[in-house]
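Here is my example:
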Amino acid sequence: MVSSRIINNDDDYIDGLLDSSPAIVDAIYKRYSRKVKHMVIGWGGNIKEAANVFEEVLLAIYNYARHHKLLLTNHFEPFFLYACQLKWKQEMMQKVPNKGATFHPLAPSPGLDAEHMKYIEEALAWSGNIQDNDNTREELEEMLADQRERWFHTKGNPTTKISIYVIITAIIAAGLAGLLFLSPWHKDVYRQFSGTEMEHIHREGQEADTALLLHEAAMSFNHGHFSHTIQVLDQILTKDPKHAAARYYKGVSLVELGELELARKDLGIVFAETSPYQYNAAFYTALSYLKEGNKQLCLEWLLKIPDSAPIYFKAQSLKEELAEKN
């Protein structure tokens, strides 16, 4: 029977892959698929290529760990995301060498030591014996195939039949294009880049009331109930005005509600302090200007995001999108 476990430490990711654990595979997709998607698309790829990178890196880690002792002392996130960057660079060097040469993989904070970078390079280059009767690998491949459509949506719609609905929609869209001429670009682009999810991870020592409020806020935020989310987060901020997560998600909620000036006030506070949400706050400040059609200030805030930030690839993708709309 395939094991299913709760993640207690970063080695559980490797052990879960070796056991083809549904819980671990699902957690990896849930936490990292969006980041890999934005990275690949931001550097000229498409969703199908992003899905391929994601799957090939997981299988490479599995194959390598099955034949070598692979002990993580660094966090899994920079380990896996750096491996995906390196894999995408390899793909780019084969397809578009000139652009591939300009892409320099960089492990997200808190970074990787030389030993873990070596693990990744060896795993991607390793060509050892892959047994045909490896039932665990076959089970893992089936899981990845199932997860692909769930997280990457790579299946295209049939093109042999064009419904009347599609034709009518196209006609309406063409008519609306003229009506939206004065401010056409920012609305669709905003929707494309504004999606995020509030994750609440219980931290040891965290006050029980705060933990419950964060859980309630996350549930509310992820269901799009932004007004209620703000009410809950305000309870946290009343007790702890420096709570970065509460301040950040309040700012995001305000952007979604169109309260852009208020949103920028909260996001500005988060950006001014050092926290995991610092550059995400810069990105959503950029989106707030995008939402009101101020392309210049949107770009200025995107430029504040360094290439070491996990949100960097998404910011790069947005800049390229805006350049195409220019």
